[in-house]
UniProtKB/TrEMBL annotation:
The encoding gene: LOC105419375
Chain residue ranges for the region called Disordered: 331-364
Gene Ontology biological-process annotations: glycerophospholipid biosynthetic process
Keyword Signal: yes
Family classification: Belongs to the HAD-like hydrolase superfamily.
Protein's recorded name: Haloacid dehalogenase-like hydrolase domain-containing 5
Keyword Nucleotide-binding: no
Protein keywords: Signal
């Protein structure tokens, strides 16, 4: 199984707190009709940008596909989770936006933003954190559990001479006095900011002064204070014909700037969002809770992840599929060696294990697989890009790797289980695979 260099997150960080962090689902969203899963129980993970919408414009197939996912009363037949690397809003706002676009009710508990798993990183919640991004970043941080939050604008105001690239934002007459802030103990990167030069400058100031921008830069202060980054997408699809720069591009700039100035690698305490395992672990929890709300007693056996980006959605789903297979294999091997007694706890200690806990505390089985479905309405287009036919080719021979620096690249993980034209075809394919009616 491919590993992440210096990446310290994983199922061990989230297993004990996942169930407590996620709220119970809203029962009225789920169908009362008896859609018994039988042996074919599954859940759907939808990317949003490039799959359901392009910028603010819904993709026509999106509304059509959701007619297959709800009954006549608008209640969901199967567990549905929206997994996006976007993070510039609250879950409630994203749920309301999706409800309007899709003409179905979407609960905040169905929405997973790139930063959603941060609510489980309780060891940082009492620290003074600097948050970077756009939108209501302070409100988002408090909602996730962070208690002492400093925004880039608050930092600019406290230290008026730090942000000087834009001459119109420099102090005009006398220089205002420095207000000073409590030392910053960690940096949280939610998403791409509006003024990149400001955020790059001030984040570098914080990292090179050990959280005290009044101090002098010191490259010897290494390793720097913790950095947690959400959303590694290099590119994303809006209304434009070609992809736009995402937060992953901002991270590339920050990493290279920091190394150029200090000679050291920027280090991450956590990388969150697709394609990280911690993101899919959390999404799986939400699917499992929805299955329980549907009254399913059969564990969810398969997840289907529908996305438009081979380097994020497909890579992440396949990466998680490999993780699940490895976990099940590890448990089977340990049970064979140690017998049934005590094997579960041993297996769960190795990279997560294949079991989890339900709302009532009972142990439930993890899914057997996570299958990836690539649509052609976003970043990937059949007309512009050919999927690799030979996974053994090197990165240079095959394609430029758009994933994050700290992910070891495996070309085979960019190969989707299925390629379809749009999300409507994707849902129809899943129902056909699972033997479910399309009514």
């Amino acid at each position: 199984m491919q590993r992440l260099r210096r990446w310290k997150t994983g199922w061990q960080l989230v297993k004990s707190s996942c169930e407590a962090a996620a709220k119970p689902l809203i029962a009225p969203l789920w169908s009362s009709r008896n859609y018994s899963p039988g042996p074919n129980s599954f859940g759907l993970l939808f990317d949003i940008d490039g799959v359901l919408v392009r910028g603010r414009t819904p993709i026509p197939a999106a509304k059509q596909c959701f007619r297959n996912l709800v009954d006549r009363n608008g209640k969901y037949k199967v567990p549905v989770v929206f997994v996006t690397n976007a993070g510039n809003c609250m879950r409630q706002a994203k749920a309301e936006h999706l409800s309007h676009l899709l003409d179905v009710e979407v609960s905040p508990d169905q929405v997973m933003l790139s930063h959603s798993p941060l609510r489980m990183f309780t060891q940082f919640h009492k620290m003074c954190v600097l948050v970077s991004g756009q939108g209501p970043v302070e409100e988002v941080a408090h909602n996730l559990g962070f208690q002492d939050v400093v925004t880039i604008d608050m930092l600019r105001e406290a230290y008026p001479v730090l942000d000087v690239v834009d001459h119109n934002r420099r102090p005009k007459d006398s220089i205002p006095p420095t207000k000073g802030l409590r030392p910053i103990e960690a940096v949280i990167l939610f998403g791409e900011p509006i003024r990149w030069e400001t955020n790059l400058q001030l984040i570098t100031d914080v990292l090179m002064t050990n959280g005290n921008p009044d101090n002098t830069w010191n490259a010897a202060r290494y390793p720097h204070i913790p950095v947690l980054a959400c959303n590694m997408d290099l590119l994303w699809m809006a209304e434009a014909r070609n992809p736009r720069f995402g937060h992953g591009m901002f991270l590339v700039c920050l990493e290279n700037l920091y190394k150029k100035v200090t000679g050291h690698e920027l280090r991450y305490e956590a990388l969150i969002g697709k394609p990280s395992v911690v993101t899919y672990n959390y999404a799986e929890l939400l699917v499992r809770q929805q299955a329980e709300s549907l009254g399913w007693t059969t564990p969810v056996k398969r997840l289907y992840a529908i996305g438009d980006n081979p380097m994020a959605d497909i890579y992440g789903a396949n990466f998680y599929n490999r993780y699940l297979h490895t976990s099940h294999s590890t448990k089977a091997q340990m049970q064979a060696k140690s017998g049934e007694r005590g094997a579960d706890s041993e297996a769960d200690a190795v990279d997560g294990g294949p079991s989890a806990t339900s709302a009532d505390g009972a142990e439930v089985a993890r899914p057997e697989s996570c299958r990836s479905i690539l649509v052609c309405t976003g970043v990937y287009s059949r007309d512009q890009e050919e999927l690799p036919s030979d996974p053994s080719q090197t990165v240079t021979e095959q394609r430029i790797f758009h994933g994050h620096r700290d992910f070891s690249f495996d070309p085979s993980l960019t190969q989707p289980s299925f390629v379809v034209q749009d999300v409507k075809e994707a849902v129809e394919l899943v129902f056909q695979e699972e033997g479910w009616p399309l009514d």
